[in-house]
Every structure is written in structure tokens, then in C-alpha cells.
């Protein structure tokens, strides 16, 4: 099954709540989400919206220094939010037990996933956020599952 990726364009970060809803509808069955994008693209802001939609009532913030934050999403269980920007190599992620988190079945939202590429599960939801010159964001999302790719075009 090969389906085209989902493409969304939003005029500013305030629209990320609607984007989060669309992404959860399409990739909500996949627990591991890899969020790609430059610094300031909106990865953490999108994760805040995803967590809110999943039932997190507390503060959601980037785990830049702690590497991982855990959130309680009530009936949706625990959510793990990773920011691997500061790690130097994958062995640091192993030392944190990242592989166990990723195998837990809980939602894992990962910023800077390219730093832990060997830990990626076979199936994951890839979300790339690109900042445009006019301040808008282009978002590309796709389920990656071996040879399976699943998403529909949306504009």
C-alpha cells in the first residue's frame, strides 16, 4: 500500500491546534512520532497542541535539558516528549533508556530524531515542519512502515 504524504500549510503557529487534530486523525494509531524541522520551526508548539488534544492538562514544555518529559494524558495513558538536540551520540540516548520508551506502546513525540536514527522503530509517523519566508509553515506527514507509506493529500 503506497499512499501520498499529507501536506498542510498554515499561515502561522496559532493554526497548529487544527493541524494537530488532522495529524492525530491520520497518524494517531502510531505511537512513535518523529518531528523534523529547524530550530524555531514549531515542533514544540505542535507537540503542546498534540498533548492537549490527547488529554494532557499540565504544562507541556520542551525537555531541552532533561531530554525527556513525561505527561499524563488520562485515558490516553502516558506521553513521552523527547528533545535530542543536546545529545552528542546515540549511546547517550541508550543510556537514558530511549529504546525502552520507544518500545512501550505509549505516544513518544521526538524532536531532533535524526540524532537517534538507529533507534527508530520499523513503524513511525514522520512530521516535517518547514518555516517559509512569509512566516507560514509547510508540514509534511507520513506513516513510515517498512515498505508501507500511509497518508492522503490534504490542502
UniProtKB/TrEMBL annotation:
Pfam families: TsaE. InterPro entries: P-loop_NTPase, T6A_TsaE. Keywords: ATP-binding, Cytoplasm, Magnesium, Metal-binding, Nucleotide-binding, Transferase, tRNA processing. It is found in: Cytoplasm. It comes from the Bacteria. GO terms for cellular component: cytoplasm. One of its GO terms (biological process) is tRNA threonylcarbamoyladenosine modification. One of its GO terms (molecular function) is metal ion binding. PANTHER family: TRNA THREONYLCARBAMOYLADENOSINE BIOSYNTHESIS PROTEIN TSAE. Belongs to the TsaE family. This is tRNA threonylcarbamoyladenosine biosynthesis protein TsaE. It comes from Salmonirosea aquatica. The gene is tsaE.
